[in-house]
């Protein structure tokens, strides 16, 4: 008889205008590895946040060891020995391995720290995860792969019972991966339950006893791993070949190259070459950490170029800062609109004009009437819903906030527009309006780079698609030639 350590019954998680999880039913067996797969946006991250107490479910029940979890929290989750190891590492680089492992729950002897026992325990944990380094080693001296194994060692100090691994092999070498796989198999023998989340389907099939597929916030199916193969998993994850929009039929006659990168490298991207045409929507796809946003930051002068050449309107340019990029009529609509794209406590008017005040300024004085008229016109064009120009942006919906960011950059008269996840976190109606704005801008001759983790979005409104992996361009397709399974496979390639 199967013994389940965690069970989710009829779990739904709703946000305003969005259902992130819909009627989820999954049981995780004690001492087994349960693979969790799905495209970006399928609901995996939301599910993990529920299990670790970071968020609460709207409806449904979670059972742990047969008892209902009520008023869960990250602290309570840790007390129950449900430990997540995220793709984004959570350590203090300047501290030693020992200090990182025991940070927040140090051993004591009387009123003093018991450093001897902490070092001994750290040595034991390092041996368990296959690392032959000393507890005193500073974390900043380690490679990313070893840091990932230190995160797992941190979980072991808490006598973990459910270990959640989120994309654990992204930064590991082949040798480090094999070591991790051995550790996972050893954990299972010790009765530890593993929830394994990865886009690397070969790993999921190799390690898992059971695999659940999520799509659009719903469980598509749960089957034993031996009944599955990579092709069948992709079909379950994708569901269908995504429909084509009318974008390919709207294509205007392409003109000159407005942007070209030749063998550009930064500390985060490697030998990237591509071009962008006037009136074109160029999609950039790839998994988290593939280098999509880093590519945008390189173009916009946030990350400094180490080598390679950048041409704008076929003229060689040196862009060292965002100001240089703006001067070359490049705009960057960031994915983090709340922190980087907007000043939430300022008004609609102030947010729209602060990147282009010189356009409504004469001899250092802002023409208030002209400023308000220009803003009204651009907001009407974008169909932004707001009470008044003096209303604080924080009071607007997510979709309207995103339109404010777009309006700000359109007022700069930018000819090259980089959109990074422009529809993240907004409702379907606002999404369709954003898509319409992108198409209209392309018709006007604007050149657009669209970075998105939503495959349907990438495939439906672009002309061409670049697929990135490990900081490089893995492949390029005309959008009408690209299928969802090809997009997924190319994104998961190791370069």
Automatic annotation (TrEMBL):
Q: Where in the cell is it found?
A: Cell membrane
UniProt keyword annotation of ATP-binding present: yes
Instruction: Give the PROSITE patterns listed for this entry.
Output: ABC_TRANSPORTER_1, ABC_TRANSPORTER_2
Q: Which InterPro entries match?
A: AAA+_ATPase, ABC_carbohydrate_import_ATPase, ABC_transporter-like_ATP-bd, ABC_transporter-like_CS, P-loop_NTPase
| All residue ranges annotated as the ABC transporter domain in the record | 6-241, 253-495
Instruction: Locate the coiled-coil region(s) and give their ranges.
Output: none
* Chief site of localization: membrane
Any one annotated GO CC term: plasma membrane
- The name this protein carries in UniProt is Ribose transport system ATP-binding protein
| Annotated organism of origin | Alkalibacterium gilvum
